[in-house]
Amino acid sequence: MKHLIEPLDFTKEEYEKIFSLVDDIIANPEDFSSVCKNKLLASLFFEPSTRTRLSFETAMLRLGGGVIGFSDAGVSSTTKGETLSDTIRVMENYADICAMRHPKEGAALLASKAVTTMPIINAGDGGHFHPTQTLADLITIRHYKGGFDNLTVGVCGDLKFGRTIHSLVRALNRYENVKFVFISPEELKMPDPFKNFIDKENYEETNDLMEAISKLDVLYMSRVQKERFVSSDEYERLKDIYILTEEKMKYAKEDCIVLHPLPRVNEISTDVDDDERSVYFEQTKFGMYGRMALIMYLLGVEK
Ligand code: CP
């Protein structure tokens, strides 16, 4: 049994298997419509979500399986003091696989230690990791760029709390000659633990989006993570620090693609949506296909 708690839980070869399964699902979706018949996904969201929860649930339904779970921990027995380990041990009696989001870093890892038969998928643990968003991001980049080697990737915004960014950088760093440009204000810089595993010559840091934009093959914008701030004044001061506009996109390469995990607040102006280099809505669709392939892979289900 395998879990997906952080991006490096899968080898590059395993990602290739999943990418190839995604290609197959996109080409022949009807061939997969009942491969998970009689399988149940436990969708346990202790923290709000639109895309991740609904794409997991859609993924399982499109595979012919069923879904149980909750989208609000306030309606679960967590409110009565039940521990996460106990909740997960009970879920293992009901479901075959579990996607879980939790506000605490390390919660998914803890859940994976409590089970013996049910794979756990980390759907986001606090400001730590979000490996299935990374799957969506990798599938999108692969689709538009043909692979990952030799790319210059700018990640912009909240690099301190942005779990999608921590995960993506970790995954991309395994490919050949990938260069990162970390674009953030001083207060939201990439924390050392997420930076230390990258060779120093493979990244640079700046607070100036316009200085960086012309050299990027991929620009990954991100929201300032309001829910992780202790001070609301600090959030208000930083929240609109970067706003990508069509005017700024004039300085980007003709084939630079713009990704964003969404939800967006103000950091990408809606006038950028019509730019053909904006692929953040396609990214959500690739996320659903990626989650279909992931569920199949972790359950050992074949066509
Ligand atoms: N990208 C992402 O995790 O979105 P949700 O918070 O809506 O799931």
UniProtKB/TrEMBL annotation:
Gene3D superfamilies: Aspartate/ornithine carbamoyltransferase. Its EC number is 2.1.3.2. It comes from the Bacteria. GO terms for molecular function: aspartate carbamoyltransferase activity. Keywords: Pyrimidine biosynthesis, Transferase. Carbamoyl phosphate binds at residues 51-52, 101, 130, 133, 262-263. Pathway: Pyrimidine metabolism; UMP biosynthesis via de novo pathway; (S)-dihydroorotate from bicarbonate: step 2/3. PROSITE patterns: CARBAMOYLTRANSFERASE. The keyword RNA-binding does not apply. Residues 150-297 form the Aspartate/ornithine carbamoyltransferase Asp/Orn-binding domain. SUPFAM superfamilies: Aspartate/ornithine carbamoyltransferase. It is an enzyme of class 2 (transferase). Pfam families: OTCace, OTCace_N. Belongs to the aspartate/ornithine carbamoyltransferase superfamily. ATCase family. Heterododecamer (2C3:3R2) of six catalytic PyrB chains organized as two trimers (C3), and six regulatory PyrI chains organized as three dimers (R2). This is Aspartate carbamoyltransferase.
